[in-house]
């Protein structure tokens, strides 16, 4: 098939550091190429991909040093380029929320739109009701709850390339890991409290967005002065296997309806157990007692830290390979592409989806 992937322009594909959606676009695109398909990627110019790249911006927005820039203008220019070339593709796969809806109405039948973010926001129900012709993909069943009447066609969970993550590191098991972003809903303060009660060092590898700098300065920085916490800062893919693979467990103590939680499967790829709060998509990702533990309180989390040492890391890695590899994700999307184009699924070993 001739497939195009339309990526957000906020981060590189894949991101140099933090970034979820663009990382998934990168892994999906390369997996589709490896499966023999003709794939075109619309993204910023520094993208690293096996597909045909159409560079639509010189640099991803977040790390662009220009102080004044318009994300809206950049995305509109990209959408116009996609529109001009739409006849070249069998399927146009959008990862840019719903900004393309007004411009591709007569082509909605040849599009797939994966929604990567939370959907419990004002104005979204009216917008998705306004454009019901677009086939929508959720990344978890829980993500759909605020918009049950939207035009959902599948739930397809994220996947990652184990080649990019590398082999699981030999675990030292002498610290707990927190990876991602410093923000109130991610609850790094809760992670610090759990680690201290469990008697293990917490290593925090996270970025601090401008909107969260006050929270970091007022709430988190004072906690870093105490014992047992090491703030590493933002890290890239090359550093993740060692950071995650050598941890006793990943702490994922979220306090919001997480649509997926990519860091959980990054940890599983390294054979590392996940201790996660029962929020959002967590119960769909973590197999309690096998790949980690699902908890609802700090007391449960502290007990789970001790139990995590008894989990079998090769089993965790195997679960990742069976459920969350980039190839599994790509085959699931291929089944959907084919179904939309031909009315039936191809004869592919597609993993079960919601």
Q: Summed up, what is this model?
A:
The protein has 354 residues and is an alpha/beta fold. The chain has 12 helices and 13 strands.
SSE topology:
Blueprint: E1 2-6, H1 21-34, E2 38-44, E3 52-57, H2 71-84, E4 91-94, E5 111-114, H3 124-130, E6 136-138, E7 152-155, H4 162-165, E8 175-181, H5 188-198, E9 201-207, H6 213-224, E10 229-231, H7 240-245, E11 249-252, H8 262-269, E12 274-277, H9 282-285, E13 292-295, H10 298-308, H11 313-323, H12 326-342
Parallel strand pairs: 1-2, 1-4, 2-3, 4-5, 5-6, 6-7, 8-9, 8-11, 9-10, 11-12, 12-13
Descriptive key words:
Glycosyltransferase family 4 protein; Rossmann fold; Glyco_trans_4-like_N; disordered C terminus; Glyco_trans_1; 12 helices; about 350 residues; glycosyltransferase activity; six-stranded parallel β-sheet; globular; seven-stranded parallel β-sheet; about 35% helix; alpha/beta
Report what the structure shows:
The chain is of the alpha/beta class. The protein folds into 2 domains: 2-161 and 325-342, Rossmann fold (3-Layer(aba) Sandwich); 162-322, Rossmann fold, CATH 3.40.50. It has helices spanning 21-34, 71-84, 124-130, 162-165, 188-198, 213-224, 240-245, 262-269, 282-285, 298-308, 313-323, 326-342; strands at 2-6, 38-44, 52-57, 91-94, 111-114, 136-138, 152-155, 175-181, 201-207, 229-231, 249-252, 274-277, 292-295. The strands form 2 sheets. A 7-stranded parallel β-sheet has the order 3-2-1-4-5-6-7, with helices on both faces. Strands 10-9-8-11-12-13 form a 6-stranded parallel β-sheet, with helices on both faces. α6 links the parallel β9 and β10 (229-231). α1 (21-34) crosses α12 and α5 packs across α10 (298-308). The protein is globular. The relative contact order is 0.13.
